[in-house]
Amino acid sequence: MTSTHYRIESKEPLLGRLLPPSMFRHLYTDRSLAVAVAVKSVEDPTRQRVRVVNVDNGA
Question: How far, CA to CA in Å, does 31 sit from each of 6, 49?
Answer without folding.
Answer: 6, 17
